[in-house]
Amino acid sequence: MSTVAMRTSNPAFSESIFRQASQDLTQSSSVMTVQGAAIKSMFLVGIAVVTAGFTWTQALGSAAQGTINAAAFPYVIGGALGGLVLGLITCFAPKASPITAPLYAAAEGLFLGGISAVFETFYSGVVLQAVGLTVGTLVMLLAVYATGLVQVTQDFKAGVIAATGGVCLVYLIGFILSLFGMHVPLFGSSLIGIGFSVVVVIIASLNLVLDFDLISRNAQLGAPKYMEWYCGYALLVTLVWLYLEILKLLAKLADRRS
Question: C-alpha distances in angstroms, 175 versus 91, 178, 241?
Answer without folding.
Answer: 24, 5, 17
